[in-house]
Each structure stands twice: as structure tokens, then as C-alpha cells.
Design brief:
Layout (H helix, E strand, L loop, with lengths): L10 E4 L6 E2 L1 E2 L2 H4 L2 H6 L6 E4 L10 E4 L1 H21 L7 E4 L11 H9 L5 E3 L9 H15 L3 E6 H9 L11 E5 L11 H12 L6 E5 L8 E3 L7 E4 L3 E10 L16 E5 L2 E9 L9 E9 L5 E6 L41 H12 L2 H11 L2 H19 L2 H11 L7 E5 L9 H9 L3 E5 L10 H11 L5 E3 L5 E3 L5 E3 L11 E5 L2 H10 L5 E5 L3 E7 L3 H13 L9 E8 L5 H20 L5 H11 L5 E2 L7 E4 L11 E8 L4 H11 L3 E6 L13 E4 L11 E2 L2 E2 L5
Parallel strand pairs: 1-14, 3-16, 6-7, 6-8, 8-9, 9-10, 18-19, 18-23, 19-20, 23-24, 25-26, 25-30, 26-29, 28-29, 30-31
Antiparallel strand pairs: 1-2, 4-5, 10-11, 11-12, 12-17, 13-14, 13-15, 15-16, 16-17, 21-22, 27-28, 32-33
Helix pairs in contact: 6-7, 8-10, 8-12, 8-13, 9-10, 15-16
Length: about 725
């Protein structure tokens, strides 16, 4: 890349090279036609788009005629090599669960299968949408296997395989056959572990694990990686002409390299040929992109080029308490079972009194079990400690004050929802369930909690809390991640049936974005009340002269849930003198943070957060990097309170500006702002309605008064 186009992309220093070169941040594909920008002028012969999700835009990848030919050649050659390595015929018959390009015209995955079909026979099978289509699917699958009478390979996404596994529609494949699975079509089906998927495919197809192969690729590349053979499982390696690396740090500026007119020009990513960090690739098969590409995936890379996927970077867009769309997917006919975590579950649905429920919850919050579970959830001992301290403050306000507790119950609206409640916790953090669950249990409700994948293991915060409640005689039911809402073939909406209960709930409570809540509302019976709390954003404000004194409380508001909660502060407004520049403010915040972070927290941010921070920091203006293990500082001149991962986003405000005016300008960008934390010297001003005010450092200490951001928690507008 040369000229003005290069300035759009971050610089990369690989293994201490003295001259950095430009790299492509994969997020650029969502906002730019990267091929056209990189080449200066470009006539795209074909465009592919990523599957995308509701939370992030779909990327656009353009390919020239030459680029498309190189892509096709690399894919077909690489796939044939994988077949040979497993002892299969490189011309073996293939069965694709991925639709043809006529149905998925912008999918690089569909194009890949189409290209394979030009060198070997490939048949397409459509995953049945319901019971009526299953006999034809099994008949067509059986005929294909009879016609082949030899080993075959089958290719599908997790989205395609999971319904077949759930409905027991996987036939026995001929000896020597292979099964390829890949990601894609995110949010369309529940999340499952890779081990579960491999085990299920092994049992269903009756093929050895060594013949179950993961394919890793993306529409932005022109190459793919595949699972290596034994002894390791879950280890991938790219095909030829691809060199992987990991991005593992940032530098402010190389020695002797003066900064450009923009302070972000001096920011340089550091990368290594092995280690842990964001996966980057030199894909020489991608002839239309003359630069390496940095992805959103965190990997552990070995010196031989093989790598292990550790997960996605911590880069979720600002959504407060967010829910994945997978809870809305129409259920399969395979009935999930309640999660069993204790043999001492109460047989009666009659709940104990208020004091017993409150006491059991309090005892758990103070326990080592709760602390261990929160360490797992937040990946930080300090954050776990602060989060539980905040929760204990909230419950203590009603624990020994019967009048306050009864007022909380009355204000909450719990008496109007009926006798049974299903709670769907947010995927972001486990503490959100405690407040409504405690009120409902103490009011005598029959409570069920639908776990998500990260909460379904016995050591999770929710499972341990429920085990403590069951041991105290409090009845509560856990549902597994496989549970979902279900529409029958006859368009009558109902819940997936649970063994021995065969019932629906009077109410469903969910914390999520408006689209998720509306989708839940459309998926349940009309008689079921949906209690949905939409997006919420918290912000903070201080005076620059008190920055050093207030920083511990700022850190508490921002990081006690590692920015995973809707009450975690997302923007710090700092009142500054008229002569203070944005760059100077960034320097001052960086310096104070550098002094206090390690003393106050004593630990580095986890690798997943580090990677997300690196990704979202690329090319941003007014950015300061205090050092590895500390959050990045960015002055947000646009005053938008969006943070992505561990980041302190700062907005300079001229001293003397009324707080009311500041909030009004912020809410133009983000009307979801519902909470403001202030130090004592800034409190007492008239503020707009709809904003809750708490002392600085108390963002995650809501009063248990029956309300949630000013609305009855069981009766939101």
C-alpha cells in the first residue's frame, strides 16, 4: 500500500523489524472496500460478505478476476491436500449442507463448495426445517450413500449440524469418510463446545475423531486452515502460501521516527512469529490485498505455524446487558432436560420466608465459592472482589430492614406477574440475575433460570448460588443452554416442553437490546408477560484537579465488572481549564493511571481483553498506551461513550459547563444513558429526568428498592 491509502491502516512491527509496515485491521472490511482502497483503483469481479450479526456490520471483500482465480486455485488445492492426508481420494464424492451460491450468492463458503464441485462430484442436501421434511432428507441422504458405495466427505457449518444431531438425523457413513465443520451464520443456533460437536459427529456418523476436521476461514482471506492430524486436537494449520503471526502489543513510537501530524501515527503494533495474541496472516493467495490482515481471533501460535484458537477478542459493541439471538431460535423436537446440580431440591413449590431467602443469598455472596466463581467470570481477582462488595452493599440495605424489604417487594410489581417466572440472564455477567431472582423467590414465585453456555457448568456463579438455595430448602429450577422457545408445525406458539412439568410460565424476564426483547415477545404465548429491560449505559464525570484522588473510584465504576455490565461506566467526562488540549489531557490521565493501576489492581488484564483492546485501538486518535497489562486511554473528541474492552474513554469538558448541558449532548449520541456517577463536589445540580445519580465509585451498587433505573423491575415501560 502506498500514498494516502496507507494512512488508513495501522503500522506493524514484526519480531523487532526496524521498519514498520502497514497492516489491515479486519474491522476495516466493514467500513471500506479495502481492496479498492489498498490498490488505488479496483474493478471487483466478485464481492463476498461475512455472515455478520445483529451487533456488527457485515464485511465486504472484493476480488478481481485474477484475485478470484488465485482464491479458487488455493482453496481447491488445499482441500485436495487435506483429503490426501487423511487417506481419502482427492476426487471423492462430497455432500454439502451449505446451500449453493444461488441461495447464498454473497457467501465465500458457498463459493468454496461450488469450486470444489468443479474438480469432484458434490451433491447438496437441505437441512429439514421440520418433521414433515425429515423423511425426504433421510431418503435423499441414503440414496447418495448408495450411489457412492465408497467413502464420502460431508461439509457443513455448526448451524447445519446441530439440528441434525438434536433430531438424530446423522446416518452411518461409509468407512473412511470425512466430516468437515466450520463456523459461519453466527447467532442462528445455540452455542456448543467444540468437544460436544466432535463427540456428537463421531457417534452419529460412526467415523473416527481423526476424520472429523475443522475448517477455519473467513471471507476476507483467500485461504483456509484445517485441523492437523493426531496427536493434538483443536490445532489448526493454514495451507501453503500463508504465514501466520500474532499481534501482542503496542508501541507509542519507534526510536528516531518522529510522529506525524496526527498523534495516532506514532502508534505501532508489535507482532511475533509465535506466542499468544491476535491472529494475523500474510495471505499471499489474496493477491488483491498487498498487506497482512489482523483478525479478531485470539490464538496460541507455535513456531511451526500451527495454532490453537482461544476465543474471540473482547470487542463486543456497546449494548449494556446483552443477549445473543440464539435463545430465540426455534427449538428442536429433542427435549432438553433441567440441569441437575443438587439432590436436595425441595419437593414443594411453596417457598420459604423472606429472611431465609435473603440470608441464603447473603451467605453465598460472602463465601469463597462466590469469589472463585466471579474470578472465573471476570478473569480478575480484583474485579471479583469489587463486584461482590458492590452486590453485598445492595442486599445489606434491605437485609436487616424489614420495612425497606417489604417496600421493595411492593414497588417491584412482582405481585402482578403470576406464580411462575422464567429468567434469562444476560450473557455479559452473572450478577444481574440475583436482584430479580431474590425478589421473586421471597414472594413465593416458582422460578426457573435458563442458563447460557458460560453459566452451565457446576462451578459457575449461578449454578453455585442455586445449589446454596436448594440446600436451604428454596425451590428453583435450572434449564440448560439447549432450551429455547419453540413454534410448532401448526404455527401455534408454545414453549419447548419440560419433562414431568408440561407447562408454560406466567412471565419471562430478559435483559437485552430492544430487538431481542421483541423477538422473545413474538415467540411466547399471548398469555405470557415478557418483562424486558432495554439497553442502558452508565457514565461518570469528575474535575481534572481531583483526577488523582478520584481515580480509584473511577476504576471501580469502570472495571469492577470488567465493562461487562450495563452499570459499568463507559465514558469519563473531565472538566478541564480552557487552555488544556486533548493531547495534554490524554497524557495526564495516562500518567495518573500508570502510577495507580498496578498498585491498586496488582494484576494485568487477561490476554482476551488485551487482544480486544489492541484491535479496537488501531488507528484511533488521541490514544495513550500506559503499558502492557493496563487499560488504554483515549480522548473522545466526539463525546460518544462507546468502549470496547478495557479502555478508559475520556471526554474533555470546558470547566464551568453545566452538568445538565453535558448530559444533553451525550444523550444525543447515546439516548441509552441512564446512570451518572459524580464525586461529591459535582453533586446537587438539576439534572434531566430519566438519569439516575449515584456517588462516584457506586455505579454497580443499585439500591434494592424494587426499581431498575427508575422503573418497577417487573413492570418496565
Amino acid at each position: 500500500m502506498e500514498g494516502g491509502a496507507a494512512s488508513l491502516f495501522p503500522r506493524l512491527e514484526l519480531d523487532g523489524e526496524s521498519t514498520p509496515f502497514h497492516a489491515i485491521n479486519i474491522n476495516s472490511f466493514r467500513a471500506l472496500d479495502v481492496s479498492s482502497v489498498a490498490q488505488g483503483s479496483f474493478e471487483g469481479a466478485r464481492i463476498f460478505r461475512s455472515s455478520g450479526t445483529s451487533a456488527q456490520g457485515r464485511s465486504l471483500s472484493s476480488f478481481s478476476e485474477a484475485g478470484l482465480a488465485a482464491y479458487q486455485s488455493a482453496i481447491t488445492d488445499g482441500f485436495a491436500q487435506v483429503l490426501k492426508s487423511r487417506g481419502a481420494d482427492p476426487k471423492a464424492r462430497g455432500i454439502s449442507l451449505i446451500p449453493p451460491t444461488a441461495d447464498w450468492p454473497e457467501s465465500s463458503l458457498a463459493a468454496m463448495v461450488e469450486w470444489l464441485g468443479q474438480t469432484m462430484p458434490v451433491a447438496y442436501l437441505k437441512v429439514p426445517g421440520g418433521l414433515r421434511e425429515e423423511p425426504n432428507f433421510l431418503n435423499d441422504f441414503g440414496n447418495l450413500l448408495k450411489e457412492s458405495d465408497s467413502p464420502v466427505w460431508i461439509f457443513g457449518t455448526s448451524f447445519h449440524f446441530i439440528p441434525l444431531i438434536d433430531r438424530r438425523l446423522l446416518p452411518v457413513l461409509p468407512r473412511g469418510s470425512l466430516a468437515f465443520y466450520t463456523g459461519g451464520t453466527k447467532g442462528k443456533v445455540r452455542e456448543v463446545s467444540e468437544a460436544w460437536l466432535i463427540d456428537s459427529l463421531e457417534r452419529g456418523f460412526r467415523i473416527p475423531r481423526s476424520h472429523i476436521i475443522s475448517e477455519y476461514g473467513m471471507s476476507e482471506l483467500a485461504s483456509a486452515a484445517y485441523t492437523v492430524q493426531a496427536p493434538e486436537r483443536g490445532v489448526l494449520r493454514f495451507q501453503k502460501n500463508v504465514i501466520p503471526f500474532v499481534v501482542d502489543g503496542l508501541k507509542q513510537r519507534l526510536a528516531g521516527n518522529p510522529p506525524g501530524p496526527d498523534s495516532s501515527d506514532s502508534l505501532v503494533m508489535t507482532a511475533s512469529r509465535s506466542g499468544t495474541g491476535l491472529l494475523g496472516v500474510f495471505d499471499f493467495n489474496r493477491v488483491d490485498i498487498p498487506a497482512p490482515i489482523v483478525t479478531e481471533d485470539v490464538v496460541r501460535l507455535a513456531a511451526d505455524g500451527s495454532f490453537e484458537l482461544l476465543g474471540r477478542a473482547h470487542t463486543a459493541p456497546l449494548k449494556g446487558c446483552s443477549l445473543l439471538a440464539e435463545v430465540l431460535h426455534e427449538g428442536t423436537e429433542n427435549t432438553p432436560r433441567p440441569v441437575k446440580i443438587s439432590a436436595r431440591a425441595a419437593n414443594s413449590s411453596r417457598q420459604p420466608g423472606n429472611s431465609l431467602v435473603l440470608g441464603a443469598v447473603e451467605a453465598f455472596i460472602k463465601s469463597h465459592e462466590a469469589f472463585d466463581a466471579m474470578v472465573q467470570a471476570t478473569e480478575s481477582r480484583k474485579a471479583a472482589k469489587l463486584a461482590l462488595e458492590d452486590l453485598l452493599v445492595s442486599i445489606t440495605r434491605v437485609l436487616h430492614n424489614q420495612d425497606a424489604w417489604m417496600s421493595c417487594l411492593a414497588t417491584s410489581g412482582i405481585g402482578s406477574i403470576g406464580k411462575s417466572l422464567l429468567i434469562i440472564p444476560p450473557n455479559s455477567h452473572p450478577l444481574a440475575v440475583v436482584y430479580p431472582m431474590t425478589i421473586a423467590l421471597a414472594s413465593g414465585c416458582d422460578v426457573s433460570i435458563r442458563l447460557n453456555r458460560g453459566q452451565s457448568h457446576p462451578g459457575s456463579f449461578i449454578c453455585r448460588l442455586v445449589a446454596r438455595l436448594l440446600g436451604a430448602g428454596v425451590h428453583i429450577e435450572l434449564l440448560p443452554p439447549e432450551f429455547r422457545f419453540h413454534k410448532t408445525e401448526f404455527t401455534t406458539t408454545e414453549f419447548q416442553k419440560i419433562p414431568a412439568q408440561n407447562r408454560v410460565w406466567d412471565a419471562v424476564m430478559a435483559f437485552g437490546d430492544d430487538a431481542t426483547i421483541e423477538a422473545i415477545r413474538a415467540s411466547v404465548p399471548e398469555s405470557t408477560r415478557v418483562i424486558g429491560h432495554g439497553e442502558a449505559v452508565a457514565v461518570s464525570m469528575i474535575d481534572l484537579q481531583n483526577l488523582e484522588i478520584n481515580l480509584p473510584e473511577i476504576l471501580r465504576d469502570t472495571f469492577s465488572l470488567m465493562q461487562q455490565g450495563c452499570m459499568s461506566s463507559r465514558l469519563l467526562g473531565i472538566l478541564v481549564p480552557p487552555d488544556s488540549s486533548a493531547a495534554r489531557l490524554a497524557d495526564e490521565v495516562q500518567e495518573v493511571l500508570r502510577k495507580q493501576w498496578w498498585f491498586a489492581w496488582g494484576e494485568a488484564l487477561p490476554e482476551r481483553h488485551q487482544a480486544g483492546l489492541l484491535l479496537r485501538s488501531l488507528g484511533q486518535k488521541m490514544l495513550r498506551w500506559p503499558g502492557r497489562g493496563m487499560p488504554v486511554v483515549q480522548v473522545a473528541l466526539d463525546a460518544e461513550p462507546a468502549t470496547f474492552g478495557p479502555q478508559i474513554r475520556v471526554c474533555p469538558i470546558p470547566a464551568g459547563t453545566p452538568v445538565n448541558d453535558i448530559l444533553a449532548s451525550w444523550r444525543k449520541a447515546w439516548p441509552q444513558i441512564k446512570l451518572l456517577t459524580l464525586p461529591s463536589e459535582l453533586q446537587g445540580q438539576n439534572l434531566p429526568s430519566g438519569i439516575e445519580i449515584r456517588p462516584l465509585g457506586c455505579a454497580n451498587q443499585p439500591a434494592w428498592d424494587g426499581l431498575h433505573f427508575g422503573q418497577p423491575i417487573f413492570l418496565p415501560s
